[in-house]
Amino acid sequence: MNRKKLFLEATAGKRWKTLDEVVEDLDLAGYWPKGLADATKRELAREMIATLKFDTTSPLQLVGMDTFVSVQRECGSSTLVRV
Fold first, then answer.
1. Which residues, 6 or more positions from 9, have their beta carbon under 8 angstroms from its beta carbon?
2. What is the rounded CA–CA span in Å between residue 78 and residue 74?
3. What is the DSSP letter of 65?
4. pTM, entire model
5. Please, which residues have CB within 8 angstroms of residue 50's CB and are 6 or more apart in sequence?
6. How far apart are CA 15 and CA 7, in angstroms?
7. CB neighbours of 65 closer than 8 A, spacing ≥ 6?
8. Does residue 30 come out as left (phi exceeding 0), alpha (psi in the -120 to 50 range) or beta?
9. Does position 14 have pLDDT exceeding 50, yes or no?
10. How many angstroms separate the CA atoms of 41 and 28, rounded?
11. Whole-angstrom Cα distance, residue 12 to residue 8?
12. Which of helix, strand or coil describes residue 25?
């Protein structure tokens, strides 16, 4: 199964989910390679969400969204992470 399809199936639902809930859904679906840190999982999930948002073959609820909110927060001593 391709990663995009697995991502969409694992995270499907009728309500908005937090990034941590998305990561948890992907954990349960066996989406991640073994040994990934939670911070890496969140980063990869954000990247996939952004990819799907701008992909015209994605479901309509992702395509055409006018707003994509992100902020940066400190993770560790001096590393900024976009969330």
1. 29
2. 7
3. -
4. 0.61
5. 68
6. 16
7. 53
8. left
9. yes
10. 13
11. 6
12. helix
Say if residues 72 and 80 touch (Cβ distance below 8 Å): yes
Residue pair 26/11 in contact by the 8 Å Cβ criterion: yes
pLDDT in tens, 24-83: 999 999 999 999 999 999 999 988 888 776 655 545 444 444 444 455 555 666 665 554
Which residues does residue 81 pair with via DSSP β-bridges, in sequence order? 73
Residue with tokens 């993770």: 75
Range of the domain at 67: 3-82
Q: Give, in degrees to the nearest 5, the angle at Cα 37 between 28 and 51.
A: 70
How many domains does the chain contain in total?
A: 1
| 23: enclosing H helix or E strand | helix 19-28
Residue type for position 51 = T
Q: Which two tokens stand for residue 45?
A: 């999930």
- Position 54 scores a pLDDT of 62
